[in-house]
């Protein structure tokens, strides 16, 4: 099996980073939901099964903050990967590279550019 071309490598890099970003968005949504649920339980006077609801809430908020902190460097890596992919697409087009590979790279490029800004709250 021949080694993958630089275009394929750049394409796969953007795909992986976009997938990772989607995963972290999903994780952040789940953590926000858990934090909100715990806050509601505390406000309603519930102390949880063993009375450590405040500690659990603090830990969940910390996890949520840590997940949120991942977005800035991740989005920076996505931007860099998108830039490399654009360069590889231009190089492949100038060299008349495989049309299917270029088409897939352009589709992935659009996915990379469509990544939203990091969530703030």
Number of helices: 3
Q: What is the molecular shape? A: rod-shaped
Overall number of strands: 0
Mean pLDDT: 88
| Major sheet description | none
Describe this protein's structure.
By secondary structure, the protein is mostly helical. The termini are far apart. It has helices at residues 6-43, 53-94, 99-113. The model has no long low-confidence stretch (mean pLDDT 88). It is rod-shaped. Helix 1 (6-43) runs antiparallel to helix 2 (53-94) and helix 1 runs parallel beside helix 3 (99-113).
List the helices and strands and how they pair.
Blueprint lengths: L5 H38 L9 H42 L4 H15 L8
Which short descriptors sum up this protein?
rod-shaped; 121 residues; 3 helices; mainly alpha; single chain
Summarize the structure.
The protein is mainly alpha-helical and 121 residues long. Helix content is 79%, strand content 0%.
